[in-house]
Amino acid sequence: DWMEADATRAVIAALTAEGGEIRFVGGCVRDAVLRRPIRDIDIATHDPPERVTALLEKAGIRAIPTGLAHGTITAVIGKAHFEITTLRCDIETFGRHARVEFTNDWTLDAARRDFTINAMFCRPDGMIIDPFDGLADLGAGRVRFVGNAMQRIEEDVLRLLRYFRFYAHYGRPPADIDALEACRIQAHKLADLSGERLCGEVMKLLQAPDPAGVLLLMQGHHILQHLLPEARDFGRLRVLVFLETRGLVRPNVAPDPLRRLAAALDVDARGTENVAKRLKLSNALAERLSALAAPPVLPDESMDDKAARRLLHRVGAPHFRDLALLAWARRKAVGDRMTAAETQRWISLLDRSDTWRPVELPVHGRDLIALGVPRGPRIGVYLAAMERWWEAGDYRASRDETLDRLRELVSRDIETS
Ligand code: ATP
Ligand code: MG
User: Fold this and answer.
1) Using CA atoms in the order 171, 174, 177, 179, what is the torsion angle rounded to 10 degrees?
2) Atom 7, ligand 1: which residue's CA is nearest?
3) pTM score > 0.90 for this model?
4) Alpha carbons 182 and 151: distance in angstroms, whole number
5) What stretches in the chain show pLDDT beneath 70?
6) Could you tell me which of 104, 200, 234, 402 has the fewest CB atoms within 10 Å of its CB?
């Protein structure tokens, strides 16, 4: 479908307008063969980056130099992004500092790629060029390094993680023994990877259909210990994935890598911080992870309405939902078989978050100022006290009642001071 899309046609037309030759490559070819949705479109071309830029601009397409050192230009049309990379081969590789040289040879470009299933080309006419038998591997669920696994990981240790990421999404057991062994031997080098590179792969791995199975495989080969030793709760992760994907919960919950990571972590708040640091998570993501992995309160299926509303008010509906899923997964992972009634109660707990509407304390700082309280920290102290009172009354107090209570508080303080 995407090959027929207007944006794709426009990019093809621009890049081939003056006789240039292009091929699609990587994930979009692999996923098109499997008829899976694609993430981004990678294009390989003979033309050097400057010429790619000129051709795109001539056609009125925005061209952004996203990786000039690697010869990558991103073409942007509306929401569609195309990564256009000049054919290259890696001359000497020292980790990620490969010395890149442009080439005219499609097969050399394929040979620098990581796995056979990622080294397939597709011409604009739909013809697939498959130099390393990637199609057969894809069909058989084989994730196979292009060349020697040991050497390819030596060149770039990120490929070790990518191996498990692609195995998680495209592989079928048994995993390749030589590849696993090469990964085991070089797993200690994972510590050298930057957080950003680690994070991208880990998040993609966690979105796989059975991330717990792959983490277990990594643990069995002493690899996970070098990456995320805190990820130990495979049982809970497995149940969470089951809950997400079995349609028990409506509306369907999308696989959420951070929630899945939280499910697998067996740590306190401090441990969660370490994980966030190692993965270089943004502040917002780090906070979310710690709120999920080491929460002060967890919802519970036996919670009464009032307690549920209180938690909903404190954390908001989306977070409540996440916490409820995690709590449910924990219970199911450690407990005995769940009765139908118990399952139903968990489902209603989640439903509650759908129907809940945020409520807001009906008095504000300006009301305090009108009562003569000077601007400053006292205002916050009063508002916090009012919030507690309002919560104790189950958020039912009207504005008038709340104002009365506020006047009472303020005048009492004036008397005692
Ligand atoms: P996704 O669906 O996640 O986009 P992808 O296969 O397109 O999967 P990318 O990370 O977008 O993966 O990389 C695009 C292509 O570049 C890969 O298919 C592979 O051919 C090549 N590639 C990417 N990273 C590496 C690497 N570290 N070593 C060798 N080749 C790589
Ligand atoms: Mg891609």
Assistant:
1) 10
2) 27
3) no
4) 9
5) 91-99, 250-252, 417
6) 104
- Extract the tokens encoding 201: 């792969």
Question: Which of these, 231, 255, 229, 251, lies nearest to 242 by C-alpha position?
Answer: 255
* CA-closest residue to ligand 1 atom 27: 159
State if residue 152 touches ligand 1 by the CB under 6 angstroms criterion. Answer: no
CA 284–ligand 2 middle distance (angstroms): 25
Q: Which amino acid is at 82?
A: F
Is the sign of the CA dihedral 152, 153, 154, 158 positive or negative?
positive
Dist. CA 262 → ligand 1 center (Å): 26
Residue with tokens 């830029």: 53
The ligand placed nearest to the CA atom of residue 113 is 1
| 269 contacts: CB under 8 Å, gap ≥ 6 | 290, 294
Residue pair 87/45 in contact (Cβ under 8 Å)? The answer is: yes
Contact 303, 353 (CB under 8 A): no
| pLDDT recorded at residue 334 | 86
Topology of domain 148-227, per CATH? cca-adding enzyme, domain 2 (1.10.3090)
pLDDT tens per residue across span 99-124: 677 778 899 999 999 999 999 999 99
- For domain 1-143, is the CATH number 3.30.460.10? yes
Ligand 1 pocket check for 27: Cβ under 6 Å: yes
